[in-house]
Design a protein that fits this description.
Glutamyl-tRNA(Gln) amidotransferase subunit A; binds glutamine; 444 residues; 11-stranded mixed β-sheet; alpha/beta; Amidase signature (AS) enzymes
């Protein structure tokens, strides 16, 4: 922990991966030493973990990188944090993110952007950009993020680390601030598949406090070293149709060559409704955001800007508290759910979601796993997309379908374009998450 703290002190001023460090980290590490001495078996004894700032930590601010929660101190730990502490891990700090996990670059943080450790002029990806940058720069060996539409996988790809999003329900959402509840999952980030498995084993598994939690025991470390010969990988042809940069296509070819050498078979599969995924995602996502963010009204949480009466207090608080992207999504979500437009937008998006699920099932009838780029390009420049919300949304074209269907997926580092890392995305059928770890390790 001391070594990591020294590294943070040296590199954090350039990177800004953290919103705040845990002032009690050393003290907590000493308590872990005591537990070890008393003979407790602690799989993550003393391991510093970086946590995205939308994961509640008791007694330590949790702001979602928003002014509206700037002073919010949770009275309890999220289930994932409780499990980390039980395993002996130490919370190193809370990482930077796009406000309320809306964005693709970590530039929509109310506290300033994070920089990509490979090139400070570029974004680390988002919305878990702080977690990905922290792991890539070795400010922490492992980190947690959240993934609503790619927010763990895309920054993992941009920063050259592993990023995993489980089957919806395998990691508890209790104590994780809701963005879009039917899409949100906590995800894990690490520099090696073995570290990723160890961390994922600790944080996943059934939780009675999350009603969408699944009864599936974690077996991630056991999946390491499993034979992969005979598996079939389906390359989704619609994901390769256009817009991918040369380094991304090269990484795909290289992955294929290496894995064919290990006995993996490759086939081309089609997911025709993939082209509607982004549109459906941004309707479902904004609809749920407009509902979830209604609670920030100056009454219960964080910021309160008093007005003449309660309505004015609410208006002033929300006007001061929310940044431009949060406002845009609340407005869009309110619109797509409004009487008269609900059927044309929200209802249609739900139908597209159902068809996408059927298409994915058909693809899995032909292949054990699916393969796409994680993102069509490597990390883009700071400021490149902030003026154009639609360009920013397009950065998620490869990742959002996975969340709409609730599938498990992993981004793995698979090459470089110039000096910038490139990631590939593997997708597994529901509850076959462990297969991703077997295949990723065989490539590693
Ligand atoms: N970039 C996507 C969005 O802005 C995904 C965000 C996320 O996964 N939290 O909605």
């Amino acid at each position: 922990l001391a070594a990591y703290l020294a590294r943070v002190e040296r590199l954090e001023p350039q990177l800004h991966a953290f919103i705040r460090l845990n002032p009690r980290a050393l003290e907590e590490a000493r308590r872990v030493e005591g537990r070890l001495a008393a003979g407790e078996a602690l799989p993550l004894a003393g391991v510093p973990v970086a946590l995205k700032d939308n994961i509640c930590t008791r007694g330590l601010e949790t702001t979602c990188a928003s002014r509206v929660l700037a002073s919010f101190v949770p009275p309890y730990d999220a289930t994932v944090v409780e499990r980390l502490r039980q395993a002996g891990a130490v919370v190193l700090g809370k990482t930077n993110m796009d406000e309320f996990a809306m964005g693709s670059s970590t530039e929509y943080s109310a506290f300033g952007p994070t920089r990509n450790p490979w090139d400070p002029e570029r974004v680390p990806g988002g919305t878990s950009g702080g977690s990905a940058a922290a792991v890539a720069a070795d400010l922490a060996p492992v980190a947690l993020g959240t993934d609503t539409g790619g927010s763990v996988r895309q920054p993992a790809a941009f920063c050259g680390v592993y990023g995993f999003k489980p089957t919806y329900g395998r990691i508890s959402r209790y104590g994780v601030v809701a963005t879009a509840s039917s899409l949100d999952q906590v995800g894990t980030l690490a520099r090696t598949v073995a570290d990723l498995a160890l961390l994922t084993d600790v944080v996943s598994g059934p939780d009675p406090r999350d009603s969408t939690s699944l009864e599936a025991e974690p077996r991630f470390a056991q999946a390491l070293g499993a034979p992969v010969g005979g598996l079939t990988v389906g390359v989704i042809k619609e994901a390769l149709a256009e817009g991918n940069s040369p380094g991304v296509l090269e990484a795909l070819e290289r992955f294929r060559a290496v894995m064919e050498g290990r006995g993996v078979r490759f086939v081309e599969v089609s997911v025709p409704t993939l082209r509607y995924a982004l549109a459906a995602y941004y309707i479902v996502n904004t609809a749920e955001i407009s509902s979830n963010l209604a609670r920030y009204d100056g009454t219960l949480y964080g910021l309160r800007v008093p007005g003449e009466d309660s309505v004015e207090t609410m208006m002033r608080t929300r006007e001061k508290g929310f940044g431009p992207e949060a406002r845009r999504r609340i407005l869009m979500g309110t619109f797509v759910l409004s009487a008269g437009y609900y059927a044309a937008y929200y209802g249609r998006a739900l139908r597209a979601r159902a068809r996408l699920k059927a298409d994915m099932e058909a693809a899995f009838a032909q292949a054990d796993l699916l393969l796409t780029p994680t993102s069509p390009t490597p990390a883009f420049r700071l400021g490149e997309k902030t003026g154009d919300p639609l360009a920013m949304y397009l950065a998620d074209v490869d990742t959002v379908a996975v969340n709409l269907v609730g599938l498990p997926a992993m981004s793995l580092p698979a090459g470089f374009e110039g000096a910038l890392p490139v990631g590939l995305q593997l997708v597994a059928p529901p509850l076959r998450d462990e297969l991703l770890f077997s295949l990723a390790q065989a490539f590693e």
